[in-house]
Amino acid sequence: MKDNYNINEIEAYLNKEMSEAERIAFEQRLEVDGELAKEVEFHRAVVGGIDKAGVLDFRVMVGEVHQELKGEQFFEAKTVAQKPETKVRTMRFGRRRILSIAASFAVLLVAAWWLFLRPISPEQLYANNFELPDNQLTTQIEDRLAATGFGTNKSALRTLEEAMTEFETGNYVKAISGFRAFKTAAPQDGLVAQASLYEAVALLELNEVTEAQNLLLDLVQNDASTLQEDAQWYLALSYLKIENTATALEWLNQLNDSAEYGTEAQRLIQKLK
Amino acid sequence: MSTFSSNAALVDQLKAGNRAVIKELYRIAYPECASFIKNNNGTASDTEDFFQEALVVLYRKIQQPTFELTSNIKTFLYSINRNLWLNELRKRSKSGLKLVMDEQDDKEFVLTSEDEVAEKEETEKQYNLIAEMLQAVEGNCKEVLINFYHKKMSLKEIAAVMGFSEQYAKKRRYKCMQAFKKQVRERYETMRV
Predict the structure, then answer these.
(1) In what helix (H) or strand (E) does residue A132 lie, and over which residues does it extend?
(2) How many CA atoms, within 13 angstroms, populate the side-chain half-sphere of residue A167?
C-alpha cells in the first residue's frame, strides 16, 4: 500500500460525491491499479475504526452516566407498575359511567379469580370496589350562590363548597368538619343528604366505619331521593371493609334489582358465596 | 419537565455526544424500558445492561445520514430496548417463555438483519484495533477525526467547536487523517512481519 493517494479523491468516491464521469474514470483506475484498490479498502477500514472509536467513547460516557445515576439511587424502584390496582377513582351519581366502570372492574376481578384460583378477602373486595363519588355538589353550590333567591344561606353554602374542596384534595378531617358545619347551619337545605353521603365516604376513608355506617343508615331510612341506593352500596362496602361478609351480602342483595348497582352487586355476591 | 425543547433538539445534542441528554433519556425512558424487561423474565441487571445497549444502538442509528425520527424519541428508544430484549430472549432459550406483550406497535421499530448481525468478526477486529490506536493519538487530531468521520460534522462546525478557522480545520482534518493512516499502516506492516 502506498500513502501517496489523494485522500479527498478516495473519500469523494466512497461517499458517492463524484460526478458520473469522475466515478467511471476512478473505477477504471481501480481495475488496473491494485494498489489503489487496496488503498480504498484501507481507507474505508480506517474510517470504520474512527467511527468505532466514536461509538466506544459514547459507550464509555453512557457507562459514566449510569454510574452517576446509580450513585443517586436512580435505579431503585425505577420501573412502571404493571397495571396498578386503582384505589381512588372518581365516579358515582353518573349512572352510565358507574355501570361501565364497575362492569369492567368486575370482569377484571372475575378474570383474576379464574387466573389465580384463590379467594379474595372481603377487605380486598372493598379496596377493589371502593370509589370516591364524583363531585356533583360544587356545581350545584355555585349555581345556588349565583342565584340571589330568598332564603339562600350563602355562608353555609360556602362552607359546604370549602368542604368539597377539602374532600377532593383528600383532607378528610377538614372536609368532615365542613360538612357538619353546613348541616348545622342549614339543616333544612336540599343538599344536606348529599353532604351526609360525602361525609360518610370521608369517614370510611378515615376508617371511622361505625360513624360512616350510622350516617349511611340514616340516608337509607330517611332519604327519599336517589341517594338511597348509593348509601346502600357504601354500606355494603363498609361491611366488607370490616370483613362482615354476611351483612355485606344482605345489603348487596337489596341492590340486586338496582339499575345502577345491580350488576356490580351481583358480581360481588358471586364472589362472596 | 424536559430541559430539551424538542425531540429534534434531543437528537441533535445526542449526536454531538452531550452527556446531559443521556441523563435525560434515562429519566424519560428508563422506567418503562425496565418494566418491559422485568415483566419478561429479565433481572434488574438485565434492565440496566440492555438500556445502556439500547442507548448505544440509538446513538448509532442517529448517526446514519438517512436517519429520520418519525416518532417520539422515548417511543423509539423503548422500541429498540424491547427488540434487543426480545432478541436476547430468543437467543437465551427456546423454552417457550411467555412474553408479556404490550401495545407497542411492532412497525415502530424493527431491527433489521443489519442491526442484528454484528459486523463480521474480522472487520470488527480490524475496527477495534484502529479505534484503540486512535485513543493513543496525541494533540487535537483524535477530536478532529472523531468530529469529522464519526459525528459527521462539517469543517465549519468543527472550526466553531474547536476554535479554528475553517481553513485551518480543513488542513488539520487532512493532515490528521494522513498521519493517522500512516500510523495504522505501519502497525499493520509490523503485524505482518
Answers:
(1) strand A132-133
(2) 31
Phi, psi of A43 (to 5 degrees): -60, -45
Helices (H), chain A: 7-14, 20-32, 34-71, 95-116, 122-129, 137-146, 154-168, 172-185, 192-205, 209-222, 227-241, 245-254, 262-272
Beta bridge partners of A273: none
Q: pLDDT digits over B107-129, tens only? A: 444 444 555 455 567 888 889 99
What is the rounded distance in angstroms from the CA atom of residue B140 to the CA atom of residue A153?
80
Going by C-beta distance under 8 Å and a sequence separation of 6 or more, which residues neighbour residue A97?
Answer: A91
pLDDT tens column, A188-213? 888 888 898 999 988 888 878 888 98
Dig out the grid coordinates for B163 from the structure: 476554535
C-alpha cell read off for A160:
359546604
Query: How much is the ipTM here?
Result: 0.83
- Give which of A241, A163, A155 is closest to A197, Cα–Cα: A163
Cα–Cα distance list, A158 to A133, A153, A190, B100 (Å): 20, 9, 15, 51
* Record: contact B130-A80, CB cut-off 8 A: no
pTM of the model: 0.52
Cα separation, A97 vs A101, in Å, equals: 6
Q: Which of B22, B50, B64 should one mutate to test binding to chain A, selecting the residue with the greatest count of A CBs within 10 A?
A: B22
Which one, of B111, B91, B19, lies nearest residue A58 by Cα?
A: B19
Interface contact flag, A47 B131, Cβ < 8 Å? no
Whole-number Cα distances in Å, B161 to A40, A64, A155, B19, B138: 29, 23, 67, 16, 18
Rounded Cα gap, residues B142 and B176, in angstroms: 8
Report the C-alpha gap between A159 and A155 in whole angstroms.
6
Contact call for residues A84 and B53 (beta carbons, < 8 A): no
Do residues B34 and A79 touch, judged by C-beta distance below 8 A? Answer: yes
User: Where do we find the cell 363498609?
Assistant: A238
DSSP B106: G
Nearest to B76 by CA among B54, B60, B52: B54
**List of chain A residues whose C-beta atoms are within 8 Å of the C-beta of residue B181:** 3, 7, 42-43, 46
> Closest residue of A to B152, CA-based?
A51
- Please list the residues that pair with A91 across neighbouring strands: A133
CB-nearest to A49 from B32, B126, B178 is: B126
Q: State the cell numbers at B62.
A: 442517529
Query: Residue A202 in contact with residue A176, Cβ under 8 Å?
Result: yes
Burial class (CB in 10 A: 0-12, 13-18, 19+), A37: middle
